[in-house]
């Protein structure tokens, strides 16, 4: 499929999906729809073991919604809200690891795309802002109002959303918004290293861990415990479990097939 607002590139087990509306890669309903389509295609693509999300250029990962595509303020349109919520849920429940590679500005809807990703790597040029209240609106993609307190805790969430100030990459690391910060000169190499490491992991355990962690937040410890046992029964009997343990004993790199 040919995309208009995103670009998809494959490198062995890693697929990079680029928000391709430079310089600010603003979110539109079309962009979100194309991201959803790409996720569907990549889930079915066995060769893809990890997905990297990034923005084109160096100025922004995504600087929010494109107001020009809405009749009112960014995020006011119900269609974009629904699409954004669906995308957040898709990222969070995606069976493969999703890495956000963040350079430059990450604002509003951009945070809604980046923060739910499993691993969030930031260049030291990255800056974040969740300043919706200073536009007279609220975050409406079910991240700030729904998930963020589970990511960061009550106090940090209120500081971030009520003050709406610019957050540096180092401050984002302190808050837990990003997983790591690297100098911009080392950014590409670190994204490549982390994504290839994730792509080399066993697919079923990665899916199991993502599902159980989500359940802890949304459904509670009892549900997570049930999932742990259900997945353990399946995974410990899998070909990949045998391959992983054999490779460890034989001091070689395992080759996982997802079976």
From TrEMBL:
Keywords linked to the UniProt accession: Isomerase, Lyase
InterPro entries: ClpP/crotonase-like_dom_sf (IPR029045), Enoyl-CoA_hydra/iso (IPR001753)
Tagged with keyword Lyase: yes
A GO biological-process term: fatty acid beta-oxidation
Domain of life where this protein originates: Bacteria
Record GO terms (molecular function): hydro-lyase activity; isomerase activity
Family as reported in the entry's similarity comment: Belongs to the enoyl-CoA hydratase/isomerase family.
Name under which the protein is recorded: Enoyl-CoA hydratase/isomerase family protein
Organism from which the protein derives: Pikeienuella piscinae
């Amino acid at each position: 499929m040919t995309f208009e607002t995103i670009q998809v590139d494959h490198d062995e087990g890693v697929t990079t999906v680029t928000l391709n509306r430079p310089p600010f890669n603003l979110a539109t309903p079309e962009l979100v729809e194309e991201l959803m389509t790409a996720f569907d295609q990549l889930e079915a693509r066995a060769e893809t073991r990890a997905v990297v999300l990034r923005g084109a250029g160096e100025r922004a990962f995504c600087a929010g919604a494109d107001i020009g595509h809405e009749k009112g303020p960014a995020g006011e349109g119900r269609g974009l809200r629904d699409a954004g919520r669906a995308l957040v849920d898709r990222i969070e429940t995606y069976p493969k690891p999703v890495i956000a590679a963040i350079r430059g500005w990450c604002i509003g809807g951009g945070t809604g795309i980046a923060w739910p990703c499993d691993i969030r790597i930031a260049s030291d040029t990255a800056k974040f802002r969740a300043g919706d209240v200073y536009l007279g609106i609220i975050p409406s993609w079910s991240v700030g109002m729904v998930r963020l307190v589970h990511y960061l805790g009550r106090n940090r969430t209120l500081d971030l959303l009520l003050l709406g100030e610019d957050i540096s990459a180092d401050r984002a690391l302190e808050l837990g918004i990003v997983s790591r910060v690297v100098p911009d000169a080392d950014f590409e190499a670190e994204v490549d290293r982390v994504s290839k490491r994730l792509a080399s992991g066993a697919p079923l355990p990665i899916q199991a861990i993502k599902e159980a962690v989500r359940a802890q937040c949304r459904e509670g410890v009892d549900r997570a415990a049930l999932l742990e046992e259900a997945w353990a029964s399946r995974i410990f009997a899998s070909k990949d479990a045998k391959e992983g343990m054999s490779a460890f004993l034989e001091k070689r790199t395992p080759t996982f097939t997802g079976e």
